[in-house]
Amino acid sequence: MVGNQKMQLNICYRWLLSLLVLLFIAGCNSDKDPILGLEPVDGLQSILISPENPTLAAGLTQQFTVLGVYANGTSLDISDKVIWSSATVAVSTINSQGLATALQPGTSVIAASFAGKSANTQLTVTSAVLTSISISPLDASVADGLTTQFIATGVYSDGTTENISSVVNWLSSDTSIAVMNPSQTASSGLATAVAPGNTEISATLGALSASTRLTVTDAILMSIQLTPVNANLFVGVSRQFSATGVYSDGTSQDISALVSWDSSAQATATIDSTSGANHGLASGLAAGATQISATLGTVSAETTLTVNAATLSSIVVTPLISTVTTGLSRQFVATANYADGSSFDVSRSVVWASADTQIATMNANGAVNSGLATGQAAGTVQITATLGLVSGSASLTVNSATLTSLVITPALSSVVAGQNRQFTATGVYSDGSSEDLTSLVTWSSSDNAIALPNANMQSNSGLVAGLSSGTVQIRATQAAVSAEATLIVTAATLSSISVTPVISSVAMGLNRQFVATGIYSDGSTLTISQSVVWASANTQTATMNANGNSASGLATGQAAGVVQISATLGSISGAATLTVTNASLSSISVTPVNPSVVDGLTRQFNATGTYSDGSTADLTAVANWTSGTIAVASMNASLAANSGLATGLSAGTSLIRASFAGLDGSTTLTVTAAALTAIEVTPENASAVVNETERFTATGVYTDGSRINISSTVVWTSSNVGVAVMNANGQLNSGLATAMAAGISTITATLGTTQDSAVLTVTAALANNPQAPAMGELQRFVMIASQAITTTAGSAVADGDMAILDLARTAYAGFTPGPVAGQFTQLTNGVSYAPDDVTPPYVVPVPYASMVAFINQVRTDLGVAATFLAADPNPAAATQALPAELGGRVMTRGVYRTAGNVIIQQGNLTLDAQGDPDSVFIFVITGTFTTGAPGGNIVLTGGAQARNVFWRTGGVTVFGSNTSFAGNVFAWQQINLGTGTAITGRLFSVTEQVTLDANAVTKPQ
User: Fold this and answer.
1) Which of 271, 383, 748, 955 could disulfide-pair with 282, CB 3.0 to 4.6 Å?
2) Are 352 and 331 a contacting pair, CB within 8 Å?
3) pLDDT in tens, 191-204
């Protein structure tokens, strides 16, 4: 009876598979995958358009962007996928990239739609006209061969300002001294120094123009300084490096974007040397050490980067509890705590998600401002950061309070003509809360000839430049709410510059901050540290930070000696003396001593180093901070603005330690908790198989009767760690048990003196092994494409044949014919086939009568295999959900499916066969599939074989440069390989083409 039932099931399955094959064949001439579909939109819940309700002067442009919010809480920039429209084209038009052009006064609804979802916002076009243009910085200087960015600010008749750098016409009066980047590009306003001398830089729009002087010095690049020096990094995370050029005139400049970055051990760590926001971003791949180098011309520098394989114990997201008003944003930081007690800022490496995107959305992952949450509607939501299998979370409450007033500070201030004054705008809301709105309000001046605010929505919004003597009102406006402050601009001239401290000392390797104060003819003073040019008289003794940034005036001791530190503005200079000592560090003290903190709150610690000569130095920012008990308290990552900040996680004590240069200091932090009456522990399932995970939930019952999920707060323990181990405490995945071996373990959650337990039973059974597709004639091939297979020089294809299914042999592009028909010099141990091949000289494979018959069989086998992989369920194994980000994960045999896009970027994907070399891995991806930096590699372990790994993709498949991949790829659309990518597997494009770029593709054995 059982046998008959099994036979009937097999007949039904074969019938269903035949139907799917027919669908497959019918769709082979279509761009849409008939089995999976192509649109990477499944899981898309909503789209958000920004900016919201902007105002624009006629003749200018506004770039709109769209963020797609998905069911798993992640967000993706889909601006290039949506359909854009403007309701009133007489007022504003918008192109396919979301760039709107304001035509005449009025309003128009700007709409974006994609996959059945839509969003809109209102664009208001004003009749304001451009009255003047200002250029910043004024009277800049740059060393020969370097670049400097100029910004053009348009001033309008209504007092508003706009950054118009991309629309003005930039010119250099002497192109033999400096040349300007083309106008109307992303880098408009960028000047490149060509030779020493002076030139006028002008920006013109219509009949209006402005100019400033650029001085190109003949200073020669003497050396490059890299920061951080001798840094540490953990596998799977990234670290930003910067390069400062030290010149022959003693000045320094940030040249991070100009140097060529390299890593001596690419298998240990890579570093991004492409242009863009990630330039100089190093990614740890494997434990070991590598030399990170930066080169500009003939000058280079290097430092050691050590990649640590310490186990990631937990991730702490801060602030743990925060509030934001609808429409505003809150920045979260993810700090990873490792098993060795160290911490690291992984905000750009984690995957950020919002538990409810109706309440709050997260910025796209991997960006400079990753972790930025924007409130959408009133409510409370969990914000999570995930790296591999480890997560951390924080609570964000979004309120619907309304803006009632604005406060500008300072309310009354003065500035000298030619200098700047920074204003801040604070919004006060109906619930009594307040928010910094400096970057969101519209800044204006009552008289732009006297003082001019920077263009809005920039990092330096609220910065006002004094232009001529007089008094003006500086106004900040948000919606219908506004406020004013008074600014007095004086005509005083700079008389002298005072540099403080006048005399100071610093140990080698440490920093000393200098401040430049301008003393003016009317007796007034002004801090001008960011305006002056800082220089060291001897860069072998001490170097200065690059000019013009927040750390301007920071000197670093390089070697023992005495050196003059100077600050110059125009023809006026001031100086101070810095003595660099070779004193050695004697001890480190940590303050405050033995403090306490309430659970969920933070406490700032400071580290002070005492040296052999009796001097002291603040080591807070450079010390390595660790918490002895990371379940009780965590420490913010070192080398950050908030280094030394501890977050209380649960009641108890923790030894807080600061280490530097082989020494350390410590103190004890006591964390107190709220009153708890009971804990209830409940498992999702009471049993698990080896290497699987089971989630336990701890619910806290409090004295006020409330019940709260405290899974990330309690201390989880397993009575038998040989059977099951618990994830580290204090993170989203706290309470996650990993089955290690067959047996029984009691899982306990403890907070203070309160605890509860549940039993987990672990069995040794392996998961069912999926059935692999029948390969037929595909077995002999390494690459197949419907339309074309193309390559650049340097590719090597081995141990398999290639075939073009639908076009002539000319569709092989970039390959060099070999001595025998069908052979290529790039193809080893294989031949190539095409439908127009005839005999002789081409050999038809046995037993086929013609090449057409052989190609038809290959096409059929490809359809059968691709259809089999897409079918759900697999005959031998259940389907499991496939995450959108696979980087940093370890996965065992099985069938994994997702109705969306998949990436492998935040670390490598490890496929573990658990000792069975016949283990089959099947990944079904409806949308696109992309691998790339900082991860993107496939690692096979536990006997896993590339021939048993199958990838079925519905969208475009892209493999990032210099990554390694394993498996058989059945892609409905095109397959594109980045430069240097190595593939152990097969590449089959059902309807389009395979594109190589100096790649190694080897058929698995």
Assistant:
1) 271
2) no
3) 999 999 999 999 99
